[in-house]
Amino acid sequence: MEYKYGIAVSPGVAIGPALVLDTEGVLIQHRTVPPDQVEAEVVRLQKALDEAAEDARSTRERLTAKIGPTFGNIFGAQASVFQDPGLRSQVETLIRIQYYSAEYAVSRVIRDFVKTLEEAARKIPEHSRAEILRRSAEFIDLERQVLANLLGHPTDTFTNLTEPVVILANDLMPSDTADFNPRTVRAFATESGGNTSHTAILAGALEIPAVVGIGRFLTDVSGGDMVIVDGEEGVLIIDPDEDTLRRYEDKRIALLSRVDRYESIRDKPAVTNDATPVPIRLLGNIELAQEAEHCLERGAEGVGLYRTEFLYLNKTADPTEEEHYSAYASVLHKLGPSRPVVIRTLDLGADKFSSLSGTVAGEKNPFLGLRSVRLCLRNLDLFKTQLRAILRAAVHGDVRVMFPMISTMDELRQCKTLLNEVKEDLEDAGVPFKRDVRVGTMIEVPSAALLADFMAREVDFFSIGTNDLIQYTLAADRNNENVANLYQPSDPAVLRLIQMVVQAAQRAQIEVNVCGEMSGEQLFIPLLVGMGLRQLSATPRKIPEIKQVIRVLQVTEAQEVARRALGLETARQVSSYLREQLRRILPQAVD
Ligand code: PEP
Ligand code: MG
Questions:
Q1: What are the angstrom distances between the C-alpha of 311 and each of 140, 316, 318, 351?
Q2: Which residue from 468, 471, 474, 477 has its CB within 8 A of the most atoms of ligand 1, so it is best to mutate?
């Protein structure tokens, strides 16, 4: 039995026989063809590229119908590459001038391109490389598909599976993952990959347990070996012993029954356990339009944070106004006219899609650089395009606009002025839109928290982004494991800032929400409710867990928890106090 640890990217436990994918890839020899076969070779190439384009188009349609256009578009983009005249002519030139075989010519062109991308990646800081490296991996995927056509190797092994398996591979491409059927692919684990890779995001959307980035392990496992994947803990267990199997089978069943149990509270109200129950509005955080469905399935009352920068997923150019509009309209159609949907304007830069849209490559401190609303205010066309789409989509429901990473009053006012200008433009052009959308700001920079009483005069609501508020308060990068000890939601400095913001909102009688990961943890619910929060927004999967705490909590006891926690001096003291309280309030709490 062996334990291998990686990055947990999609929760759930699965047990089953391993299907191990070959690690070698396709080895293409340097082969040439006689001059009189050159034209036949070019025809062979064109046929292989046409077939690959056709396959990509049909995958696009299949996936768009199954999980939405964002995923379908990955393959739309692939079809365009296969048909790109520039790519075709480069490969044909190598066949005609150098007499390369079609396989070798395709491989040369794509590999050269990948090499250029990887060299470019090496010249920029490590944290900004992810997007380029992801693109280079996708080009390798394209190469593999064309080669499979040329060599006559079928690549659709996943759609033909009849027995349930756990897939183990060095890496999986989005084109592989797209074909996974959760009934036959119980889980997957890979040697490479990170939690923002498209494969990881697809696994989450398909709800297939997955662990990636494990490092070398394929040599330690054979096809058919029994394996366990725990997508919550990020563990792969090869050849488990009886005891371990039993333990994980129990966990698997417990997780399923946890889902059932939570399903049973899905339709119950999120109200406290007081004589006069106090309602707490639970909202969902989404990245992709199709996740709106998940919000409803998990019992959220609306969308508290729509991270629209994910419209850039698989994009090499800015989304058009129509693409923005149709994504927002589809969320609103799913949620209906009266559920709130908070659309956050683009938060590009730093670690999110940092090679696109006016982002500046090579900034020394990208998290302190031209990120988010700062970038939008420097790229007004980009910003106005999105604002137009939001205002137009707002006719379909209860849309609220929210600006991220506001750090000064000037920034907030500039955003509001721009929103008004866009309204005037739409009015002049006679385009239907909703004028009276509510406007809010995220409070995720300490300066905004400190100015919360001023900011409250300018907006209809606040949403506290604890993910960033913690990193900027403690000067601890949210993605850097070396300072993870400092990056603590329970740090007293963070709690004080939250309290300050909530009190400013209460004085100004505006709504205040917490939408960072902190609000998805059961541990912090008594504290947040005790501090006065009546709205929380979290990843949809967490909503039932939060509701479970709320339904046994009394506001007076929550206030006492908050009072005591705010008197403690260190993050460790706060965490252990909150753990003790959660165990008391909800003995069966999920840690
Ligand atoms: C936050 O910072 O808490 C937040 C919700 O925004 P993001 O995680 O997208 O930066
Ligand atoms: Mg943030």
A1: 23, 11, 9, 15
A2: 468
Please report the pLDDT score of residue 466 as a whole number.
95
Residue 198 bears catalytic tag: yes
CATH number for the domain formed by residue range(s) 35-151: 1.10.274.10
What ligand 1 atom has the least distance to the C-alpha of 464? 3
Q: Report the separation in Å between the CA atom of 303 and the middle of ligand 2, taken as the mean of its atom positions.
A: 16
Tokens 């999920």, residue located = 590
- Among residues 523, 514, 522, 517, the alpha carbon closest in space to that of 539 is found at 517
pLDDT in tens, 419-432: 999 999 999 999 99
* Amino acid 246: pLDDT: 95
- Minimum CA distance residue for ligand 1 atom 6: 465
Cβ neighbors of 243 (< 8 A, separation 6 or more) are none
Fold of 2-25+158-259: Glucose Oxidase; domain 1 (3.50.30)
C-alpha closest to that of 467 among 518, 429, 399: 518
Catalytic residue among 30, 127, 198, 295: 198
CATH 3.40.50.150 applies to domain 268-589: no
Each residue's pLDDT tens digit, 319-353: 999 999 999 999 999 999 999 999 999 998 877 66
Active site residue 515: yes
Residues of the chain with pLDDT below 70 are 22-30, 127, 153-157, 159, 174-175, 194-198, 205, 259-260, 313-315, 352-357, 481, 589-591
Q: Is the pTM of this model over 0.85?
A: no
Task: Return the domain boundaries, the chain.
Answer: 2-25+158-259, 35-151, 268-589
Q: Report residues whose beta carbon is within 6 angstroms of any ligand 1 atom.
A: 305, 307, 347, 444, 465-468, 515-516
- Ion ligand 2 contact residues with beta carbon within 5 A: 444, 465, 468
CA 219 from chain centre, in angstroms, equals 31
